[in-house]
């Protein structure tokens, strides 16, 4: 009878009939197929594996969230560093421009200094001193 009931259990429509049938006739206890030990063990193993997968998925989600936060922080740092580099680049360009302007001013100052009247007067006085020295030396040699 048990083998027949097991064969009927394989059919999709006979599952409810098995639960209603009795093992040994009308006076015996109702038949409860339940789970076999192997089925219970597989169910427990599946539950443990499902729990482990759930924990792993939770860890992966946490890792992805952490990675997203790191990427946000990194993008903020990149933006800040870009701003600093732009500021440094601007200051370097400004210094270069200021140096070029300063060089032009130095060249103009040198030219104007060479052309200035003061330099001309000093040169004239130096020539006159040399001339007067020569006159004095000639006068002494000639006896005047």
Secondary-structure map:
Blueprint: H1 2-10, H2 15-20, H3 37-115, H4 117-142
Could you please describe the fold and organization of this structure?
By secondary structure, this protein is mainly α. 83% of the residues lie in helices and 0% in strands. Residues 12-19 and 21-28 have low confidence and may be disordered. Residues 10-19 have a biased composition (Basic and acidic residues). Keywords: Coiled coil, Golgi apparatus, Membrane, Protein transport, Transmembrane, Transmembrane helix, Transport. One of its GO terms (molecular function) is SNAP receptor activity. Residues 47-109 form the T-SNARE coiled-coil homology domain.
Over the alpha carbons, how many angstroms does the gyration radius reach? 55 Å
Largest sheet: none
Low-confidence stretches: 12-19, 21-28
Bulk shape: rod-shaped
* Share of helix, binned: over 70%
Beta-strand content bin: under 5%
Order of helices and strands: HHHH
Protein name: t-SNARE coiled-coil homology domain-containing protein
GO molecular function: SNAP receptor activity; SNARE binding
Organism: Cymbomonas tetramitiformis
GO cellular component, one term: SNARE complex
Q: Concise description?
A:
The protein is an all-alpha fold and 144 residues long.
Features:
single chain; 144 residues; mainly alpha; 4 helices; rod-shaped
């Amino acid at each position: 009878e048990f083998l027949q009931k097991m064969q009927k259990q394989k059919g999709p429509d006979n599952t409810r009939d098995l639960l209603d049938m009795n093992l040994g006739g009308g006076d015996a206890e109702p038949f409860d197929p339940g789970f076999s030990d192997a089925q219970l063990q597989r169910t427990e193993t599946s539950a443990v594996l499902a729990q482990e997968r759930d924990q792993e998925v939770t860890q992966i989600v946490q890792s992805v969230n952490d990675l997203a936060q790191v990427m946000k922080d990194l993008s903020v740092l990149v933006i800040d560093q870009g701003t600093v580099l732009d500021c440094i680049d601007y200051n370097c360009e400004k210094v270069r421009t200021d140096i070029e302007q300063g060089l032009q001013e130095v060249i103009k100052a040198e030219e104007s200094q060479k052309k200035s009247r003061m330099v001309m007067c000093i040169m004239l006085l130096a020539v006159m001193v040399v001339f007067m020295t020569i006159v004095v030396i000639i006068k002494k040699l000639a006896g005047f």
